[in-house]
Design brief:
about 300 residues, alpha/beta, globular, Aspartate Aminotransferase, domain 2, seven-stranded mixed β-sheet, 11 helices, binds pyridoxal-5'-phosphate
């Protein structure tokens, strides 16, 4: 086995020499294995690597990127709470709020992700969770992440902040340390509480795996999520986990190659009279955050 590879441990049942040994084992801090659904050596390896990538302390794997979003909603919201969603939110996340969350007495409201004022006006004492996307789904606006997070911390300290980090992928910026987004001084700490990620996309890279992850730093938050994860039975298949571990090794290379290609395509589109508008996250956010990859002479001008 190579230094960076790991075994594929398939398991449902785990055997213990006696009941006392079973009771002593703790899955929640990943110090041991108790049942396939609660983790295997293979899933622990991927979780640890994703935690390193995102700058988190705890990561949980779930069956899809959407399951990462719904786990956060279900674990952290209760009847009477409100969740805020950006206008360009990933559509199934909105649908989950409109249907399942509404059925459980949890309301949602929208805000304009490009306006801190709009977010500030949407925050109320009932706001318990705010979702961010950077860049946002489909239209790819890159918001003022630090401005949004600072506004929530000041005006709604009771609210947790979750980022759908699928597009940034842990490569473009570090969600728990947003100083790195705009090069602010170290010590000016500002970060989200939770990062959800569709591993289905960049980390897997092969177009053949469905998986998601939820990352956080706070151990108390991890415990809340882990117990909900356990009660919901959100396990993942280890063959898929092994595929993502393999994909992760080339994530950085692929991400930057795709970034460079997207910039070239966007620059080309800009020169075509048939195009009314070119939507791209660069340069408002990602261009500065990534700061690598070739730029064409037109890239960064007007898109
Ligand atoms: C921004 C974003 N979040 C979440 C998801 C959901 O991921 P999955 O398809 O693995 O459920 C997607 C999928 O397209 C996405 O684009």
């Amino acid at each position: 086995m190579g230094r960076d590879t790991t075994g594929v441990f398939k398991a449902s049942t785990v055997f213990f020499p006696n009941v006392a040994a079973l009771r002593e084992r703790r899955w929640i801090d990943k110090s041991a294995y108790t049942y396939g659904l609660k983790g295997t050596p293979t899933t622990y390896v991927l979780e640890e690597r994703l935690a390193t990538l995102e700058g988190a302390n705890h990561v949980m794997l779930v069956p899809s990127g959407l399951a990462a979003i719904t786990l956060i909603d279900m674990a952290l919201l209760k009847s009477g709470d409100e969740v805020l969603l950006p206008d360009n939110v990933y559509a199934p996340s909105l649908s989950f709020a409109q249907h399942e969350l509404a059925n459980w007495g949890i309301t949602h409201a929208r805000y304009d992700q490009m306006s801190v004022v709009s977010l500030s006006e949407a925050l109320t004492p009932a706001t318990k969770l705010v979702w961010l996307e950077a860049p946002g789904s489909v239209t790819l606006e890159f918001p003022d992440l630090r401005g949004l997070v600072r506004c929530i911390r000041e005006k709604a300290p009771q609210a947790l902040i979750a980022l759908d980090n699928t597009w940034g992928s842990g490569v473009a910026f570090k969600p728990f340390d947003l100083a790195r987004v705009d090069g602010s001084q170290a010590g000016d700490h500002l970060g989200v509480d939770l990062s959800a990620h569709a591993l289905t996309k960049y980390p897997s890279g092969g177009g053949d795996v469905m998986m998601g992850s939820v990352a956080c730093r706070d151990p108390a938050l991890h415990h809340r999520l882990a117990w909900s994860h356990s009660r919901l039975g959100f396990g993942v298949g280890v063959d898929d986990v092994a595929a993502v571990i393999k994909g992760l090794a080339t994530l950085d290379l692929r991400y930057h190659a795709q970034d460079a290609a997207a910039r070239r395509i966007a620059a080309w589109c800009e020169r075509q009279p048939q195009f009314k508008r070119v939507l791209s996250p660069a340069p408002a956010g990602l261009a500065r955050a990534i700061n690598t990859g070739p730029r064409t002479s037109r890239a960064g001008q007007g898109w």
